Amino acid sequence: MTINNKYLDEAEELIKRKDYVQASEKLWGAAAEIVKVVAAKRGIEIKSHGELYKFVANLGTELEDPELIRLFSLAGALHQNFYEDWLPPETVVDHAEAVKELVAKLRRTFFKRNF
After folding, report:
1. What domains sit in the chain, N to C, each tagged with a CATH number?
2. Which of 98, 100, 113, 114 is least surrounded by Cβ atoms within 10 Å, i.e. has the fewest?
3. Which contacts qualify for 21-26: CB closer than 8 Å, 24 or more apart?
4. What's the whole-model pTM score?
């Protein structure tokens, strides 16, 4: 099991337990980790949030898929929610689906096998 799958599985369990704050951070971790893996495959090391967002913006342009930027931004809102606990549960659940979609898109595009 990859760390990405681990974070997604843990987030699902936390949502079931209604621990939306902790689920938010696991979902952010899954999104950030897959982006870092894609960057690493290209020889790019990402060291900051700004670099993550810039890399995703560039990917969105390169792949002609602006949806990547929107999906990653929703993951960013989850990261903020971990610290501030401001998102309603329904929003966390919605954003969790966005993170899953982002991860699936990047897996399909950059990896021959699903991990």
Report:
1. 3-110 (1.20.120.330)
2. 113
3. 21/81, 21/82, 21/85, 22/82, 23/92, 23/96, 24/78, 24/79, 24/81, 24/82, 24/87, 24/92, 24/95, 25/78, 25/79, 25/82
4. 0.93
